[in-house]
Amino acid sequence: MAISLGDMTQTHRSSSKAALPRLWSGSNLGSFPSGIRPVMPRHIESTAQQRSQDVHLANGLQGCLVYRPGTAMCAVLVDIEGGSHDEPAEYPGLAHFLEHLVFLGSRDFPPEQSLIPFVQRLGGRVNASTQARQTRFFCEVPATHLDQALARLMDMLAHPLLATEAIWRERDVLQAEYSARTQDRQTLCEAALAWALAPGHPLADFHAGHAASLDLQSPAFLPTLRRFHREHYLPGHMRLTLVAPQSLEQQLELARRHGESLLAGKHLPVPGAPSLLPLREKRLRLGLPGGSENLLLAFALEQQGAALEAAVAFLDSLIQDEAPGGLQARLGFLELSDGVKVRLSYAHRGQGLLLMDFDRVPGADCARLESEVLGWLAFLRAAAPWPGVWEERLEILQRRIDRLEPLEVAMAPGLPEPADVRSLLDEMREERLIRLETSTSIGTPNVESAGFPLHLERLDVCSGAHSINRWQLPPANPYLSPTAPASAADPLLTLLPELPDAPGQGALFLHWSPGGGGLPHGLAHGLQRALRPLLSAAALAEVEGELQVVRGGLTLALQGEARALRQVAGDALPILQAPPLWALAQGPRLQLSELRRQAGELPIRQLLQRLPGVLDDASTEAPGVLDPESLARFWWRSRWQGLGLGDVAVDADLPGLPAFPRRAAGGGRRTWHRLDVEGEAALLLFYPLESLSAESEAAGRLLARILEPAFHQRLRGELQLGYALACGFRQFDGYRGVLFAVQSPCETVAGLYQHIQEFLLRQHERLSRLDQAQLHELVLALDQQLDRQGVHFATHAHQCWLDYRAGLPADHSQQVRRSLAGLQTARLLQQQEHLIKGLRCQALANSEVPASSWY
Predict the structure, then answer these.
(1) What is the DSSP string of 663-732?
(2) Active site residues
(3) Domains of the chain: total
């Protein structure tokens, strides 16, 4: 029940309409016009062996069963018709609060056996979100545990304990969440946009909830809470989606077993919402704490159909395409924007609020940017039905769906029809547009919207010059039908065979270390900008690629269909060595913009982003001017390492001289790093493994798996220290170990450290009582997860690269599993003592602690 911290946590709890950043895409997609989100039949039958079936039980429960053969995981998704806009006005946040409460134990499953700890022990994913007219709950677990996961999820929805003590504790958690949201950029921007809509629309009402809005001492509160549950958490208001390798007949039997026992109730009509128009304001500026200066263009939609999200996905594929003549290429050329994110922040019964969130170049003319966007949208309307492009984009979207994990399949929006996209474009016009500029200049709050105090400035409404660009539809994607032939591999490039379960898939990892002096300032960002058009086209062909700064050097990672990957790599290497001068020149500015953006994120996220640099303790930059000469010197002096999986050898010379991986050092000492990060108290503790042996890693992984649910229960549930926390086994290039992280609005960093130390001592006693049967069950669950990772190509490839960089043998993962099978409690206790002593612990925090506490 923690916010998503990127790779920090497998468990993420989202909440009301303006939620904190998500663990995976698609978890904040708004409620649907029908109040229930279907799995769209247009894509369910796309895979030859995949089949689906709609079900309707006698008590009103509807469902969609999806047979997806060949996957080791399964997904359960329940959409409930009823959300924050349905809650009683006297208790703002009650719907969101109930979403929290149902996780805290149910009639058949006490808290320690409930869904979240159950999923954590299995290494799965679990989440929930409260939206305008819909509340959704979902999880992904091994397919062997579908029955148990479904039993827990349905029981907690139908029969939550709603114990008094738990209710009081959870309200404090909700207050901590609200406190974090008051500094969250996405939350504040969406609140400002809600204020700009027609007065009286419920988007501008307070629905997140906090301690003051939920008066637990009121005699009417608990009856109101229970009545809301009775009226909305009913089978007739639910839609169940299962995606699993079990046959449709087996899934139907499970749906009936756990669904038919639910008592039917009276179906309440779903009210409509007042109009989004006329807009209260069309041009605003919002002051935000830290971060970069962005521009949001929001379109108020009112005449949309059930396929709104699918239409947005199609439009977004065109927006993100960086081909010449498109929107991204134009905005980049004019130095107006460095990128854009598109999302639906709200959708209900034909209404929608579609956001285009631009990373505005500092000093860029917002009116000019707006006019270019409107010009491009007008071009798209006139170009319908987009000959050639329509068919190619549907193929791209379908291929993406076919490669999704079960949970994402359950959430996938399906494919649109041309009429769906035309309807969307018809409403994306200037009269429906809100332009919101963000500024780091914060004044005294002068407006409250959605329960959050904001500093808003009204801006004059003046249209910019109309775009006169000669827009073009994107050309055919060269990577959808690759032509690059197989070639001989560089003899110094390590190649591993493809996975039998992933024929035709490949991965290529290349790392360049500076020969001396570090990376030139801004080099990585300049090269990233140069590669963007190519990697954008590659991503549409399902070849994922990125260029990152790792351990003071550059790492290029590509993964996807091997034939296309060879062509992408062959095109990328010359660009890296001779990028366009305009892209290279933008590097220092882009690096500064990235630092500003990071400064606006949650404190605990900032600590995590800076942890790899702290572990390496190496300079990542060299002084000097970034120009072609300094780039040439970097490549001439650099040393490269490479690993390929599958048939990915490329016919291109690799710049620099080859180097060979060296086994990562296992030393280190206990160190406290105070970082200049503003905001609530935040602490991150990373305990590197004593050694990189298979036995040490097996013990570290299993110990982290045992500690994770207990850490959440203790620090979040019992102590209510904060909403943002994480615990688990983590890998950072050559380093791997156990990580703890927590951010708190009510405790100091020193206090957080003491709580974690006390937690470790308490868990040592618990571990000593672990019997052989319990240990065997834990080992089996972790081994199954490692087995799944071994056959999931992207995860397998990444792990092979991490092992290679650490100087470990190719069969290290298999050695870890063998060591895991023979692991004894005594070895776990030894690993736990290593954590308690913390002799090599790396602590990152935004405050010092007394030396007596740390040592």
Answers:
(1) PPP-----EEEE----SSEEEEEEEE-S---HHHHHHHHHHHHHHHHHHIIIIIIIS---SEEEEEEEEE
(2) 99
(3) 3
